[in-house]
């Protein structure tokens, strides 16, 4: 394996690339990417977009088509993954990647594809808005992208096509980021002194303490 995967960050930043994939199913080791979309954001504003269907070389199961409305006919003339992925990675450059549930889903497809095709890891750090939403909107019972969008009164029209989901998620990230900043301003003690991640309450043999949310990667602590 060449290189390292990026780190998961939890920050409100102004410049990033938000991305989303549609796939033939939920198993990164067996299913294939059928659409990649991304939006480049500068100064919190969308400035550029990238979107391509991908010919997966296999039949798209009807269960997948029912969700994303992408069919075999639609991808017949589309580029193969190698070309699509290279285009996406070039578009993303060294930007921090933002996406919903990318830590356990989309990035695994990207990592596997990049390893298989380019023989390299994708090292961009990333922000998963699913984690942010759970942290910033703890009272919401579900944190799917459409739940978060509905909470902020952001339109969910055309959901489950990758570019529409990117547009939706970019708006959600901007709203979640403002809540994150506010939480940190009101509770500066929850910021890890070592890495800037948020800390969580833990209990050890000497009682309760704040420990870095990025444990075991970071071992920052603070007394309560
Ligand atoms: Zn830390």
Fraction in beta strands: 15-25%
Number of E-state strands: 9
The percentage helix is: 25-40%
Bound molecules: zinc ion
CATH class type of the largest domain: Alpha Beta
CATH-defined topology of the largest domain: Nucleotidyltransferase, domain 5
The fourth-level CATH homologous superfamily of the largest domain is Ribonuclease H-like superfamily/Ribonuclease H
Helix tally equals: 7
Cα Rg: 19 Å
The helix-and-strand class reads alpha/beta
CATH architecture of the largest domain: 2-Layer Sandwich
Shape: globular
Characteristics:
224 residues; alpha/beta; Nucleotidyltransferase, domain 5; six-stranded mixed sheet; 36% helix; 22% strand; binds zinc ion
Task: Report on this structure.
The chain has 224 residues and is an alpha/beta fold. It has two domains: 8-186, 2-Layer Sandwich (Nucleotidyltransferase, domain 5), CATH 3.30.420.10; 189-223. The protein has seven helices and nine strands. It has helices at 62-68, 72-75, 81-92, 102-118, 129-136, 145-151, 162-186, and strands at 8-9, 16-23, 33-42, 45-53, 97-99, 126-128, 199-204, 207-212, 221-223. Strands 1-6-5-2-3-4 form a six-stranded mixed beta sheet, with helices on both faces. It starts with 7 loop residues before the first strand and ends with a strand. Zinc ion is lined by residues 192, 194-195, 197, 212, 214, 218, 220.
């Amino acid at each position: 394996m060449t290189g390292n995967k990026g780190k998961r960050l939890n920050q409100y930043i102004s410049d990033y690339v938000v991305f989303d994939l549609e796939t033939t199913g939920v198993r990164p080791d067996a299913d294939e990417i059928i659409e990649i979309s991304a939006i480049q954001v500068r100064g919190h504003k969308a400035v550029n977009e990238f979107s391509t269907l991908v010919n997966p070389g296999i039949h798209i199961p009807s269960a997948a088509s029912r969700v994303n409305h992408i069919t075999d006919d639609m991808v017949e003339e589309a580029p193969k993954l190698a070309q699509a992925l290279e285009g996406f990675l070039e578009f993303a450059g060294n930007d921090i990647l933002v996406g919903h549930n990318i830590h356990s889903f989309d990035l695994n497809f990207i990592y596997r594809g990049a390893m298989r095709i380019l023989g390299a890891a994708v090292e961009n750090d990333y922000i998963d808005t699913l984690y942010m939403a759970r942290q910033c909107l703890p009272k919401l019972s579900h944190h799917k992208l459409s739940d978060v969008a509905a909470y902020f009164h952001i339109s969910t029209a055309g959901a489950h096509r990758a570019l529409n989901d990117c547009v939706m998620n970019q708006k959600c990230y901007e709203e979640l980021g403002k809540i994150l900043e506010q939480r940190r301003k009101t509770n500066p003690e929850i910021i890890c002194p070592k890495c800037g991640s948020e800390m969580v309450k833990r209990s050890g043999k000497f009682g309760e303490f704040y420990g870095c949310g990025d444990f075991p990667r970071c071992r920052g602590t603070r007394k309560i």
